[in-house]
Write a structure and sequence with these properties.
The chain contains 13 helices and twelve strands. It folds into two domains: 191 residues, Type I PLP-dependent aspartate aminotransferase-like (Major domain) (Aspartate Aminotransferase, domain 2, 3-Layer(aba) Sandwich); 133 residues, Aspartate Aminotransferase, domain 1. The chain is an alpha/beta fold. α1 packs parallel to α8.
Length: 337
């Protein structure tokens, strides 16, 4: 066959990401959602999946609006408490899908505890590791079976290519995901594969700076009088700060904060000069977004508010610009409220 089946550039990337995550097998897809969709093909009709209830809006949409139509069952629970996962497991549960830290309010799940609970029930554990990258978190080391990434974000790092990847160790599951990759055809192009490989060459340097600036921005926001609440695992005020320190080698560049109202959030979003209003994350530039109307617009209002995704919530993907410049831009925008 042809490049849909095999391509040397894509194969090199798949081996690269698998090595970064400590996995035996890797499969690159045309987007992060294509990677997640392929992973869910391990679940059959009539089977059940437990999912982090604060997951990315695109994942929520795929599960509830598409896959649920094919007789897959989904329950969304707070996976930060393994007891919630245990309570949600049914006789037909075959997968636990975890995002940690979650998008956008940065809830952290204890991967080792959840993996133990899931494995006792005979279920696979999948972790979306996009927010941390393999540099700051390696879920397979904590018992997770499968790791997925949107390579669009930190792995690419330059906001110039969309992609996704699945890595795992189980040979049988890998054979099936490889078969799905070829049969469904949502493969990553050779050029986009090259772009991600280029990005991984600077992953360590970039993640160190994202982490350094992320901590500084979060500390600044916690002291600002116009900010009601900050969501960042690196802050001592974060309820799972100790867990994040154990499980991650850093805290990354994703910070969210609440300014209390849609009007206040709009003021911040419209007043920034250095930061760019955009949905994506993980690139060299600082991006700012409004989850309620952007990344999580597909989630109903009641569920959003219950999860803390209020109209006043603003999410920042802290980039590689000078840290003081990023803080100064946020400061002048907040002072306009």
């Amino acid at each position: 066959e042809y490049a849909r089946t095999q391509n040397p550039t894509r194969s090199a990337l798949e081996q690269n990401i698998a090595a970064l995550e400590g996995a035996r097998f890797g499969f690159a897809f045309a987007s992060g959602m294509a990677a997640i969709d392929a992973t869910l093909r391990l679940v059959k009709a009539g089977e059940h999946v437990v999912v982090s209830d604060n997951t990315y809006g695109g994942t929520f949409r795929l599960f509830t609006k598409v896959l649920a139509n094919y007789n897959l069952e989904f329950d969304f629970v707070d996976t930060s408490d393994a007891l919630n996962v245990e309570a949600a497991i049914k006789p037909n549960t075959k997968m636990v899908f975890v995002e940690t830290p979650t998008n956008p309010v940065m809830i952290v799940t204890d991967l080792r505890e959840v993996s133990e609970v899931a494995h006792r029930a005979g279920a696979r554990v999948v972790c979306d590791n996009t927010f941390m990258s393999p540099y700051l978190q390696r879920p397979l080391e904590f018992g997770v079976d499968i790791v997925v990434h949107s390579t669009t974000k930190y792995l690419n790092g330059h906001s110039d290519g969309i992609g996704g990847v699945v890595v795992l160790n189980n040979e049988e599951d890998a054979a099936w995901i490889g078969f799905i990759q070829n049969s469904a055809g949502a493969i990553l192009s050779p050029f986009d594969s090259w772009l991600v490989m280029r990005g991984t060459k600077t992953l360590a340097l970039r993640m160190e700076q994202h982490d350094k600036s992320g901590r500084a921005v979060a500390a600044f926001l916690e002291e600002h009088p116009k900010v009601k609440k900050v969501y960042y695992p690196g802050s001592a005020s974060h309820p799972q700060h100790a867990l994040a320190k154990r499980q991650q080698s850093g805290f990354g560049g994703m910070v969210a904060f609440d300014v209390g109202s849609l009007e206040a959030a709009r003021t911040v979003l419209e007043s920034v000069r250095l930061c760019t209003l955009a949905e994506s994350l993980g690139g060299v530039e600082t991006l700012i977004s409004h989850p309620a109307t952007m990344t999580h617009a597909s989630v109903d209002t009641e569920k959003r508010e219950r999860l803390g995704i209020s109209d006043g919530l603003v999410r920042v993907s802290v980039g590689l610009e000078d840290t003081d410049d990023i803080i100064a831009d946020l400061d002048q925008a907040l002072n306009g409220i």
